[in-house]
Design goal:
The protein has 592 residues and is α+β, with helices and mostly antiparallel strands. Among the domains are: 81-224; 390-577, Histidine kinase-like ATPase, C-terminal domain (Heat Shock Protein 90, 2-Layer Sandwich), CATH 3.30.565.10. It contains 15 helices and 16 strands.
């Protein structure tokens, strides 16, 4: 049927073509401008990028060197802090006893330390106790460290052999646990080696250490500086390490042209605790080569993208631009939470079905979110109330029994203190029905419980507090400390004295509590059963209760962790968010 007087459609350029022309204008013109200005700007960009890459390589080389240095220093620490080695070194018994100490105790200690690293090292020990016999391979004057590396053994001399050596006389004054130096001494220059020097001191005199021996741990410079390779930063480059006096310890690559230092990029970094310096000389030609290569690659990619995007845009944007914009507009509104927005579309194709489906989906999702949100809030509140109601107050029976005994034996003062502390504990527990309380109230409630136990156990239990004052301005759910303190009193103590340490720290945006005892501890299997909802059903109820309440209220990122072992005590860590009093909690369980 023909509709009379139907309006005649105006001829116009489709929006897709306009979009394509605009796209081409805004792509081609900037590409021409970028091509014109990039040559002058790109050099600095490449230099900065190359410098960062080289700096990263230098850092890796430095870390490798320092790792090997620390490995050798760790061996010296083993001997320096080994009291079971120092004691026989101070024993001046002569005769067979000295040989027996040397063979059974001292030499095995040195060999164990020397074999505690994957590096090939030669160890020389100089002892002030001359009742101990010297033991060495070769001779002191013509040392052969390669032989010591092969046989994995230690040369032991008397200290008087090096007392007149300049390097020993000039060795820095001892600072306990800190004084050590890397130097080239004796035949190190000749053999291409370097040594870690360190005293052995009497551990009883830490303020003013007394020297009882001297360590020299020697290794090849090639092994220590193995990571220094000029090829890692480019051909023609130079890498070297210099000591505090500026002497070159090790070099890789050819010597740079000092007359044309402007043609080099120079990067320096410190190495080790003795202010060694790792220096890299990189010819600028390396960066220019990279610049030309990358520039040609970018030009090729830009041309290819220009061709592909132009043809793709011509065929696709005209048809889909308007329709997809409508769909994207509604989807973006849904993503931002505006589920009331609807899509208006006329036609009889796939987009009309999409529009209808989106409108219906927005309406359904809005209803579902409201229902799920309300259901989860009700469920969370019910679970919180249930868990809160299940807090086991069985210690009340024991406390009342203790009160009865105190009354029976006429200990009125203790009776009064225990009753007052019990009343204070339950007053804080009730807290007018509130679940969230200030951290200060939780600590006060824990202290009230501890005072009850102190009245009961007396000096058999000591309590230490280590509380950061910064945490008192935050809030927590109540009764998260008392169950673990109660657990320590009931299970950690086996007749001997018990020490409990309560720690509270602010760590970033979290509050971390720790209850630490020196009791009998428990095995890992018992800890696993406590947190297992099936196997741990009849044990660790209070721990699971606190863990569940924390996660239910604050989310799965928080809760309780336990570390323990037989005979070493138990550490309980409780983590909650640092949230100021009165701040509305984040609902982590709601659907997004």
């Amino acid at each position: 049927m023909q509709v009379p007087n139907s309006p005649r459609k105006m001829r116009f350029m489709p929006f897709g073509y306009k979009l394509m022309l605009t796209y081409m204008v805004f792509i081609i013109i900037p590409m021409i401008a970028i091509g014109y200005f990039s040559n002058s700007m790109y050099q600095n960009s490449i230099r900065k990028h190359t410098r960062n890459n080289i700096q990263g390589t230098i850092t890796q080389i430095k870390d490798n060197i320092e790792y090997r240095m620390r490995d050798v220093e760790r061996i010296s620490d083993m001997l320096y802090n080994d009291e079971s080695l120092i004691i026989p070194l101070k024993n001046y018994e002569t005769g067979w006893n000295s040989y027996e100490r040397m063979a059974d105790i001292i030499i095995p200690k040195f060999n164990i330390a020397m074999n505690a690293t994957g590096l090939n090292i030669a160890m020389y020990i100089f002892l002030s106790n001359e009742t101990l016999p010297e033991r060495y391979y070769g001779s002191f004057e013509s040392e052969d460290p390669d032989q010591l590396e092969r046989i994995k053994n230690t040369n032991i001399f008397h200290l008087n052999r090096i007392e007149d050596k300049v390097w020993h006389k000039n060795f820095p004054e001892e600072k306990f646990g800190l004084t050590m130096e890397w130097q080239r001494v004796e035949r190190d220059y000749e053999l291409g080696r370097i040594s870690l020097l360190r005293r052995l001191v009497d551990l009883k005199y830490q303020v003013k250490p007394r020297e009882i021996g001297f360590m020299r741990i020697s290794l090849r410079k090639q092994e220590l500086f193995e990571a220094i390779d000029y090829s890692k930063i480019g051909e023609g480059s130079t890498l070297w390490v210099t000591d505090e006096q500026g002497s070159i310890l090790y070099m890789s690559g050819r010597t740079p042209d000092y007359a044309n230092m402007d043609n080099y990029l120079i990067i320096k970094d410190s190495v080790g605790r003795q202010n060694w310096e790792l220096t890299a000389y990189v010819p600028l030609t390396v960066m220019e080569t990279d610049s030309a290569r990358v520039k040609m690659f970018i030009i090729a990619i830009c041309l290819l993208c220009l061709v592909v995007f132009t043809f793709a845009g011509m065929f696709i944007s005209r048809y889909f631009s308007i329709r997809m914009n409508k769909v994207v507009s509604v989807l973006n509104a849904y993503r931002e939470g505006e589920l009331h927005k609807r899509m208006g579309y006329q036609g009889n194709d796939e987009f009309s079905e999409i529009a209808s489906a989106l409108n219906e989906m927005g309406q359904n999702i809005n209803h579902l979110i409201e229902e799920v949100y309300m259901t989860q809030i009700e469920k969370k509140e019910a679970e919180l109330e249930s868990l809160q109601a299940q807090i086991n107050p069985h210690f009340l029976y024991n406390t009342l029994s203790s009160i009865s005994r105190l009354a029976k034996f006429g200990e009125i003062d203790k009776l009064q203190r225990m009753v007052l502390d019990l009343a204070k504990f339950y007053r804080l527990s009730l807290n007018e029905g509130r679940t969230l309380i200030p951290v200060s109230s939780e600590l006060e409630q824990a202290e009230a419980y501890i005072n009850i136990q102190r009245t009961k156990f007396g000096d058999a239990v000591t309590i230490d507090y280590d509380i950061d004052p910064a945490i008192v301005k935050y809030e927590t759910i109540k009764l998260i400390l008392q169950p673990f303190i109660e657990n320590a009193f009931e299970h950690a103590r086996m007749g001997d004295s018990l020490n409990i340490r309560i720690v509270g720290r602010l760590e970033g945006k979290r509050i971390v509590f720790k209850i630490i005892d020196n009791g009998v501890g428990m095995p890992a299997e018992r800890i696993r059963q406590i947190f297992d909802p099936i196997e741990g059903l009849n044990t660790g109820f209070g721990i699971r209760n606190v863990h569940s309440r924390i996660q239910l209220h604050f989310g799965s990122d928080y809760g309780v962790k336990i570390g323990s072992g037989r005979g070493i005590g138990t550490t309980v860590q409780i983590v909650i968010p640092a949230r100021e009093i009165g701040k509305v909690p984040v609902d982590r369980s709601s659907t997004s």
